[in-house]
Specification:
The structure is a single chain. This protein has one domain: TIM Barrel (Alpha-Beta Barrel). Helix content is 50%, strand content 17%. The protein has twelve helices and eight strands. The chain has an eight-stranded parallel barrel, surrounded by six helices. Strand 7, helix 9 and strand 8 form a beta-alpha-beta unit. The chain starts with a helix and ends with a helix.
């Protein structure tokens, strides 16, 4: 479908993407770093991010900072009585480039989340809206097979993009990528204090076949978010090494 193809191309450049996630406010409130969403979006655009992710209700608030500079992905809320069709219509009216749904697996409510993802996928396909599935297994000690299963569920149910965990080492993550035909973006999770450790994770994930990153706290809770985005962009789009990206980050 042409609409979906055009929207996806605004997020992925040559098959890769740097996405800055700032949709944490519903779950966590005004966290340090996202008190002003407009500043987050402006910094993301300045650093060269491909897309920002915000909650659907805040798209209008950041429209000026995003317009013509960075693609917008709208996070949809998951509640038992949500009318997803009306939500996606609202996302279309807002002009976003994709929608995202959080899907928890390995939990008692797994079937309910998968059913919701299937419902959203059908509406998105009907209207040419790309769908990102944030596949989030509920496990303390994350098994690579659990991540692979979660990513595969997203593909089988009809998503277009997967956001999920990096498994911690290249070989196991390569197996995840090979088992899921969709582009996979790794999520950042809690803030990683060491710049080198964060960039090493990104480099290893990219080398194993990741299509990019979808980071939040690991960008906007750093001292210089613009430099952090530039360093991530250098790795994702220019193939920079950890050492090269560290220099970009340190030079600002």
């Amino acid at each position: 479908m042409v609409g979906k193809e055009l929207r996806v191309a605004r997020i992925f450049r040559e098959g890769r993407a740097v996405v800055i996630a700032a949709d944490h406010g519903v779950a966590f409130g005004p966290m340090k770093g996202i008190e002003d969403l407009r500043k987050v979006v402006a910094a993301s655009a300045e650093g060269g991010a491909d897309a920002v992710m915000v909650n659907l209700g805040t798209v209008g608030y950041v429209a000026k900072e995003a317009a013509g500079k960075v693609a917008v992905i709208a996070s949809l809320p998951f509640r038992r009585r949500v009318d997803f069709r009306s939500m996606i219509k609202a996302a279309l009216r807002a002009g976003v480039d994709a929608v995202k749904l959080m899907v928890f697996t390995n939990c008692p409510e797994e079937d309910e989340y998968i059913d919701a993802l299937a419902d959203v996928a059908r509406v998105c396909e009907e209207w040419g809206m790309p769908l990102m599935a944030e596949m989030y297994p509920r496990e303390k000690n994350l098994d690579p097979h659990v991540v692979a299963r979660a990513a595969r569920i997203a593909f089988e149910v009809g998503a277009d993009i997967v956001k999920t965990f990096y498994t911690g080492e290249g070989e196991s993550f390569r197996a995840v990528v090979q088992s899921c035909p969709l582009p996979i973006l790794i999520l950042g999770g809690p803030k990683v204090e060491s710049d080198e450790q964060l960039l090493r994770m990104v480099r290893d994930a990219l080398d194993a076949g990741a299509a990019g990153i979808a980071f939040g706290r690991n960008v906007w809770q750093r001292d210089n978010p613009v430099a952090a985005v530039k360093a991530l962009r250098a790795m994702v789009h220019e193939g920079s090494s950890v050492e090269e990206a560290l220099r970009v980050l340190q030079e600002g």
